[in-house]
Amino acid sequence: MIWDFEIYGFQNLSGSISISRKSNQEIIINPSLIRLIKKEYIPLFKKLKIDENKNQKNLKNIIKSLLKIFGINNSFPEFTNSLYDQFDENSPKFNNSHETRLINNGVFGLYANSKESLISDYVKLEQTNLTCHFDFPKDNNETLFTGVALDHSQQRVIRSINQKKNIVINGPPGTGKSKTLTASIVYLLSKGYSCLVVCEKKTAMDVLYENMESLNLQDFCIPISEVRKDRRKVVNKARNIIENINSESKLFKSESEEKNRFSKREKDIVKQKIEKVNEIVNLINKTKKRLNKDLLGTKKTYSDLVVYVRNNRYKELSDILKLNSKFYNFTFNEHEYLKNLFDLYTKEFEETFNPFKSLYTILNPKIFEKNENEFNKLIRSLYHEYHEKLNNLKNKLDLSLIGKSNFAFKYMNYSEAKDEEIGAIQNEYRFYLNKIKNYNLFHKSIENKINAVDLRQKIILLNSYLKEIFEFKNDFNNLKTFHLLYTQKNENEQYLIKKLGFEANFKTDFFEWYYSHILSDNFIDNFDFNGFDKGYHDIELDVNHVNSFIVKKTVKKLIDNRIKGISKFKRYSKITIEQFFAKKSTSKRKKYPLFKISNHNSGIFKSFFPVCMTNPGSCASLFPMEKGYFDYVIFDESSQLKIEDTFTSLLRGKKAIVSGDIHQLPPMDYFNENLKSSETFKNINDNNSKSLLDFAISQDYNSQYLDIHYRSKHPDLINFSNAAFYNSRLIPKPPLKKYKPIEFFSIKGRFINQVNTDEANSIVNYIETKIRKTQSLGIATFSLKQRDKVLNELELRSKSSHSFYRKLESLKRNGFFVKNIENIQGEEREIIIIGTTYGLDNKDRFKELLGPINTKKRGHKLLNVLITRAIEKKIVFSSIPENIFSNFKPLIEKNGNRGKSILYAYLYYAKAISDNQTEKISEVLDIVSQKKYHNKYKRELNSKSLKLFSTYFVNNLSNIIGEKIICENYFKVGGYEYEIALKKRNSVKLLIDINGKVAYNSYEDYIFDMDRCHIAKKSNYNYYRLWLSNFYNNLEYETNKIIKLLNKEA
Q: Which terminal Cβ of the chain has fewer Cβ within 10 Å, N or C?
């Protein structure tokens, strides 16, 4: 028989315990004994009952029944009346009379909760066909609103629930797992779904229940840790529900429940708000998609084009460059072709030969029908024949014009005048020109240019072109090669190539015009969702209103379900609901055990308590082994849950939410239960899953990652774990004040007889002199013996100092603990003191044993748990020599982030933080991160584009303000990264986001945008969300807004 006691330890007395027993705790027969009887003797054996009064007669009957089963049935000796007499320690174990008696003693031991109920589940899985439930109830909430304000990553979990997926919540320390699970529970309740919450640790269950209390939803939850002990709690709560329902003829008369009513008008208002929120979120998302839409393949988005163009000069450029959009289709292929065309000819013109700066526009295209020798021979002939004659003719003309009107000569036709001398010169010029024209040397445009001027200019131009051709005659082959390619281009391409040859900036101007046209075709209207001006797109108040209504509506629906449940119970049962939930047995009717209450076919238990929080063993005892008995089953701390312990709980849900962290400790195996007789268990065991979390991941559950780290009040407290274990994906909140979050003390204590006395004393001294009695404090040591040493030193100091005793008592009221590192998971305190325990021995040797943290499989997880417990500050006391832990880099390169390698890296990091050595901090984080960075929210602009845009933008601002503005890109506030930070007088004044973030879904991205705005403002920065469409449409307007913010105090 098993009789429950509760045993408590004293924190300041490591060897002292307190034993107590509650009067209502039952005595049970060992379930393993019952299972043995069923298996070996009587398969249909019924469980023996022990009456509440536990009298001698009842105990005797039970013992006789058991003796009979084991074949001891010849005669039943009478028990003495003095059943509980003190046992004589000096008497022999057996006497000759073999008198049957109960010995008044027992065995104290840690009794692990029986797994008989789990074994029974597996037997049912093997031997019977399960009843299955696949259909969900009617969905009462098809929206994504939960009634709880969540961050973007937590909201993704809600979206997955709405899609009815099996989910793994990857929740690193301090990322709000319990809040996410609470919101998930509320969301499931709002949909009208039942929910089973399975936690191995009662503390995890308590946190979730307290969260439900904060939302006034605790009445619909029931936590059950032990089936026998918690019956009274369940019954009392159920009776209260019944009494509240029966106390009024109409449910909503009482003031406490009146608040759960809502009018049609309120429902209509909320409906309108939901529609508005969805409309705004969809509009924002649509705008983001348009801003990030690939307009030219994957090369250029709308935002990329704005960064290139900067200012809207489309009409201006069209006129200046004489470009016509009808010749272009503005597609990706065309863009790539034009880009290659420009690149090819730009390189050719700049590095090899530019025909437009040679003779190409002078020569007649027919001349390229000649070969180089023919061309050279012709040019030499013409040049020698006419160059000097044209010079002489020009001089002769100049002499003949002496004393005559230059104006008349220039603008009047002298051929009609009777000036024989000038007429002769003109005839001679025409003779030379016709001779040269016969060789088709000049381009038609050159002939036209010559014809358009007076006689003197005609002679000069003709001679100068002749001379130029002669001087550049060696370019003929290059010109001919170019001509062959050029003439294969269409007219528009020839125009572009020609402009490229003549105008240095044509390529830049052309693509600005080209991109401007695309931007014009994809026009995006101005957008007022900027985080500064309150506008149409700011819907936070609407979201809060909707969330409040969701909770209110959920409560109303759950109360209605209870009333329906009672009505259904009356149809299924011949007894009253009060008799069913009887607190005690009577002479006429025995009370129902809890497992019968929870199994009743009317479903009254789930009607009263749609959320049940329990552990795997109790779950197996409470609820029928039916697939999908609950709509959802939720597991917390699943990295510490064994799959064999939770598989049957998993089956009881239609869908599952598994929450945990693969970088925290796996299940502890104190008692290696042997379930190999179960074929089902063998199949599960073959899966090689260590924990439920491993199993869920291996089954491809939909993985959701929690991104925002809330616990640590300073990023330096989490940055090491973030880099070493989480690929830098966590986003820590910025500090609210400047302080040193990690202190490192090198103690140089000796590790002798498995303890480090100096380190223990240093920890106690620090508590006495530095810790405030109002703070919450935890101490972690690397071994149990060192933990005991610290506890003993605390006790000794308490005895010698009354003020220290009072401080310690105050700290205990705030949750003070001293634990070894294997037992610290799940704890969090404002201050965590870490003692690394190990050091040099009395022979000055450091053996590097380091205990469990030096194991490859679990060591890094122990360290991760250890260094993520602090809320405000960590204090590290270490006796590990600095020359040892400073040599972490080659160990990391060899072993990775495992064992002593990562421990030494952390000690190096902690000391660098303590000493404010920025370069060393960056060095160690780079090494442990192994250059693995995860950022789901991609940078909208690459660093080069952002720098170019920022330079242009800041120069423009500086010119307008008349004061130098400094820009910093990718400015970090905690773990939040902002594209642009503007500094004025060396002080950051304004943080700018470009467009807003796009990574997941519209509502989640909206939440993240709002969060970024709040973080900037809480950190005393002004904030602006710059939409590049606004910038392009109205540069002046956006610039003035930003100038206003730069001049505004945050």
A: N
pLDDT at 1012: 93
483: tokens are 């001509």
Residue 18 has phi, psi (to 5 degrees) of -125, 130
Other Cβ atoms less than 10 A from the Cβ of 732: the count is 23
Helix, strand, or coil (residue 1021)? coil
- pLDDT tens string 894-904: 999 999 999 99
Going by their DSSP bridges, the two strands 987-994 and 976-984 should be labelled as antiparallel
pLDDT digits (tens, 9 = 90+) for 168-200: 999 999 999 999 999 999 999 999 999 999 998
89, pLDDT greater than 60: no
DSSP code of 941?
Answer: S
Rounded to the nearest 10 degrees, how much is the dihedral formed by the CA atoms of 157, 866, 935, 965? 120
Where are the extended beta strands (E) located within 916-975?
965-973
Residue 95: CB partners within 8 Å, gap ≥ 6?
none
User: Does pLDDT of 377 surpass 80?
Assistant: yes
| Mean of per-residue pLDDT scores for the chain | 87
As a whole number of angstroms, the distance between CA 937 and CA 941 comes to: 12
**Number of helices (H), then strands (E), in the chain:** 41, 24
Helix axes 177-191, 540-572, angle to 10 degrees: 60
- Of 16 and 454, the one with more pLDDT: 454
At 584-642, the pLDDT tens digits run 888 788 889 999 999 999 999 999 999 999 999 999 999 999 999 999 999 999 999 99
- CATH number of the domain at 709-929, out of 3.40.50.1000, 2.120.10.30, 3.40.50.880, 3.40.50.300? 3.40.50.300
19 DSSP β-pair partners:
7
Per the CB < 8 A criterion, the answer to whether 629 and 237 are in contact is no
CB 146 within 8 A of CB 188: no
The set of residues, in sequence order, having a beta carbon less than 8 Å from that of 501 and lying 6+ positions away, is 345, 349, 354, 355, 356, 357
> Within 10 A of 472 (CB to CB), how many other CB atoms are there?
17
SS3 716: helix
CA dihedral 939, 944, 949, 953 (to 10 degrees): 110
- Please provide the size of the chain in residues: 1050
pLDDT band at 10 (very low <50, low <70, confident <90, very high): low
Q: Give the pLDDT of residue 936.
A: 56
Produce one character per residue of 105-138: b if its CB has 16 or more CB atoms within 10 Å, e if not.
Answer: eeeeeeeebbbbbbbbbbbbbeeeeeeeeeebee
In this structure, whether the domain defined by 943-1046 belongs to CATH 1.10.150.20 is answered with no
Can you tell me which residue has the tokens 């909320």? 270
Q: Which helix (H) or strand (E) holds 596?
A: helix 594-599
How many Cα atoms occupy the beta-carbon half-sphere of 139 within 13 Å?
10
Interval 493-507 mean pLDDT: 93
Q: Which residues pair with 742 in a beta bridge?
A: 874
DSSP 8-state symbol, 2:
E
* Residues 625/648, Cβ–Cβ less than 8 Å: yes
Q: Does 91 have pLDDT greater than 50?
A: yes
Q: Is the pLDDT of residue 98 over 60?
A: no
Three-state SS at 452: coil
DSSP characters over 261-281? ---HHHHHHHHHHHHHHHHHH
Helix (H, G, I), strand (E, B) or coil at 635: strand
- Give yes or no for a contact between 153 and 168, defined as CB atoms under 8 angstroms apart: no
- Three-state SS at 906: helix
The two tokens of residue 793 are 């030193």
Q: Give the span between the Cα atoms of 85 and 501, in whole angstroms.
A: 117
CB hemisphere CA count around 980 (13 angstroms): 29
CATH code at 116-261+542-704: 3.40.50.300
